[in-house]
Fold Type II secretion system protein M.
Amino acid sequence: MTLNELQAQLRERWARLETRERRMVLAAGGLILLALLWWVAVQPALRTTREAPLQIARLESSLQQMRAMAAEAEQLRGTPAVNASQAAEALKAAAQRLGTGARLNLQGDRATVTLQGVRGEALLAFLGEARSTARARPLEAQLTRSGDAYNGSLVLALPSAP
């Protein structure tokens, strides 16, 4: 059956319908058209409008964090280089501030810090000091939490000789 034959058949059926039936078919078609318009155009736009403020806030927060990290990286990049012996001394001083809960073992360009009962705030301060003064970067961390203290080990990379 060709398209022309199908159109002719539909016109014939339409002509046989009574006025009331034609109105009902038109009303049903209109409802279907409105439903399609809602599902395809209106509902996605409303969902986007409703969810956009949350996404914008989330993205703005991420952007602020990235800017802060970029500023910190730029600041670290601008600080003068530290040689290996100065880095080792700075790391020893930082580890001593942790008290008896930390043991430092230096091996070439790596340092292993073994922790026993070190509080989270002290560990955070140690890592910040190790990064800023000794330019040490954490490579590996195996930590377990015991109450409000940490046990385990950290492997840090010291800067190589300039």
